[in-house]
């Protein structure tokens, strides 16, 4: 009787569709590969400060080098167009550090526009966009946003309308502090030398020795890059171990029927959700269901991205709620 009760509960269509999942989420963390060196891969994002400055700026265009962690913070207006964003990128990054091989970003309308894609193609840069409602895929820029918010609170006026004037100071403070991932400051790793501060002139012990020769400098910098790779690997290993504790490995197979979360699916009038597709007609229900049943899936086991035969959208991030029971209730 106990086995029959368990089987009945597991195959109940209403329970599978409507009740929340209490098990650990599926899918193990798989971070992006470590870039080969400085300037190879960058992350970018738009940070909304929620306050319009005296100069009419509201957003911060955040650009971070994924290897050195070096950041540029660029104030811009809320209504900045794609063309203006491209100009800011060229003037504030490309002119100083060259063209990156890969650009990681979210799916802001300016990053998904044809103009941005064409500009990236002309630059020879590959676009790597995150999936919706999954900001941790662009964790480098998201973490930088938190750092900027934290530092701005210490330096802006009570009126908060001078934040754009403080951005150069905020960027300088961040870039000159030793990063916990690389164990060296972003400035020293990205520029190859450590810019001096007032403290270096006040304290004799902070003064550097004579400038090394060209060959010696090259050897030292190459050694620094190798050490940075090792530090990033250790940091990634620690992050993977921590993030995977509450997760389960995905065991989906091609052709299985799965459930897809419906809370982030595009809604129609009166908040209706499409539930299934039949005879080329859309059917919906007044009470949006938590999970939507799909008919098929095309992906390898433990993949991060799944191709699902769903009438609304075919591509989903790996955190599918689970497989649909193949048995009748």
Automatic annotation (TrEMBL):
Single Gene Ontology MF annotation: nucleic acid binding
Pfam family, one: rve
Residue intervals of the Integrase catalytic domain: 34-194
GO BP annotation list: DNA integration
InterPro entries, alphabetized: Integrase_cat-core, Retrovirus_Pol_polyprotein, RNaseH-like_sf, RNaseH_sf
Cited Gene3D superfamilies: Ribonuclease H-like superfamily/Ribonuclease H
Organism superkingdom: Eukaryota
Protein name (Swiss-Prot/TrEMBL): Integrase catalytic domain-containing protein
